[in-house]
Amino acid sequence: MSFDLDLIIRNGIVVTASDQVACDIGIKDGKIRFLAAGLPSLDGCQEIDAEGGFITPGGVDSHVHVAQSAAKGLGARSADDWTSATRSALAGGTTTILAFAVQGRGTSLANAVTDYHTKSDDFAVCDYGFHLIVTDPNEHQMHTELPKLVEEGITSMKIYMTYADLKLNDGEILNVLFAARKYKVTTMVHCENADVIDWMTKSLQARGMTEPWHHGTSRPPIVESEATNRALALAELMDTPMLIVHVSAPEAINIIRKAQTRLLPIYAETCPHYALLDGSQMRKDGFEGAKCVCSPPLRDDPKDKERIWEGLANSTFTVISSDHAPTCYNDERGKQLGLIENPTNNPRGNFKTIPNGLPGVETRTPLLWSEGVLKGRITPQKFVELNSTNAAKLYGMYPQKGTIQPGSDADLIIWRSDKSRKPYKIENSKLHHACDYTPYEGVVLEDWPRYTILRGKIVYDGEINEVLAPPGSGKFLQRGSSTLPGPRNQWLSEWRPE
Ligand code: URP
Ligand code: ZN
Ligand code: ZN
Known about the structure:
The chain is α/β, with parallel strands linked by helices.
């Protein structure tokens, strides 16, 4: 075996989802070649001294909205394009993102994918893949187009139970699940009860209760837990795995936990904002609360955040994603829509027309590291599992992505050691996204990535806060099927899919 290496990282503590070990990492042609103590120095080989810091796999953020029109159909515009979103990812230690190619109703999945390649391929700076958002699961789309896209490495789809332009009824969801099982596609579900939201919204509007925090009033936890329960019932009926996205309500966590205890292949995702922010954000002065309008909403009871941390630590949650869905605050096609489309002229705006979503692709990993590992809420191994490994497994990228082992892509984060760690204050001006705010302005973290490495190259230098990768250097990932547990061949009746 040749000792020809391009890069050696010394003096680090390598962390995977199961272990941590002090060793050097030898990298060749973008791949990890050796993990060993005392690798010899080689002529022409670059070296990095990790100075005793932890080294974790590059982050895999499996839920990022990039250059996608917002769900409310009001012509809201995404703050980021593919270059700014992926630069932001790298600066926060994320080396792979999965973003959404949206099928418009009555249009084809294949067109959505072609369009999305046009937006991304020459512009991305981190590695990336696409999920499909399915809005029209007819026979042709599900059984002619979908299998072709699976061959092209698009092996996951998101469906919605709410939003007028996106929602599917239960029969349509079964169409999707039937195809998902057949073609081994991971299904992600946005669980909120659309009819309840519509009814509550109308009622609140009629009473003039339109301030940003009434976004939360219109969607109490039961809206999420009822839909979660229904989605899981449909998954059980079809005997197919399912990931519930952006879970926020403890009631929904309980339902998911129960299903997992019954060994159903049910997976769950949450986001840093549900672990760290609460509904008080939407009650800030003036129209400021609009910055934190997202769906499901931030929950009112501050104690709910501890339930999220509990679910992260006890493996109810499979992954933590950013759900990066940025619209600018000072943009007439961003959050300001809530003041513009505001029939009652409420000076605090109208929640109904505020585009949903928060930015977070850059802050996700440092928040989980600092608030999770360095504050003792989760172990470094659990961090790796939630931040990288499980997403790579669930979405068919493992072990190319999501771990540190010979043969894997050399996607790494080098953190600072106990001795050299210094506080990092989050300020929007330091972030690399194109959004004009962060919900974490002023939050002080205990650390921030010192280096991000993608396929063996330093792509973010935290000493100077610079992203070094040029547009187009990110690679599209042709993914396989999930390697987490799948169908069990256990049925609720005599019905079978074949
Ligand atoms: O509020 C959110 N999460 N907006 C993004 C769209 C979605 O449903 O994930
Ligand atoms: Zn969603
Ligand atoms: Zn989302």
